[in-house]
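Training component of the fellowship. As part of building independent skills, the fellow (R.M.) carried out the full modelling exercise for a liganded target. The chosen ligand was flavin mononucleotide. The inputs are recorded below so that the supervisory panel can assess the work.
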Amino acid sequence: MKDIVKTTGPATQREFRDALGRFATGVTLVTAEGPEGAAGFVANSFASVSLDPPLVLWSPARRSARFDIFVSAPRYAIHVLGVEQFALIARFARGGPGFDGLAHERTPEGVPVIPGALARFDCRQVACHDGGDHCIILGHVERFVLRDGAPLVFSQGAYGGFVHGG
Ligand SMILES: Cc1cc2nc3c(=O)[nH]c(=O)nc-3n(C[C@H](O)[C@H](O)[C@H](O)COP(=O)(O)O)c2cc1C
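Fellow's submitted model of the complex:
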């Protein structure tokens, strides 16, 4: 099969997104307490950064209606979603009910959290770096929670599960 070669620019933005989408990721739900209550943000830009100190990052888009809530939150939680938590994506999409009617708890610091995630990282924001049309939020992980299970996987606009190979 022949490779397609493109130069980045306005005319190839769609193809650039498609190329980025070839990178399969997990799916996270980032939660924080905003001025109007509990808020959530579905993000696949999560990445581990450092073990010592324990640092992780994620990147909200500046144009997101929820951008200010998450950039301003001193504390937040990143939930790594399990495959059976697929419905949370629609719940936290634009116009979805979000936390309305959803069972949740609070960390001792007051961050809203959802039970049942494959892993959860309770973070304190340590930096917010410029990332073009996104902002790179770096968090110090103060607490983490984990369980066994299969991750929800996202690639090329579609969702799937992960099959463990030998
Ligand atoms: C699987 C998935 C991953 C996403 N990852 C990100 C992300 O890392 N950063 C981001 O800014 N938006 C991401 N989004 C989009 C946001 O979740 C949200 O839908 C978007 O910001 C528009 O919502 P809002 O303007 O109401 O905040 C992702 C959406 C999906 C479905």
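The panel noted the following from the submitted structure. The chain has a mean pLDDT of 96. The helical segments are 13-20, 67-72, 87-91.
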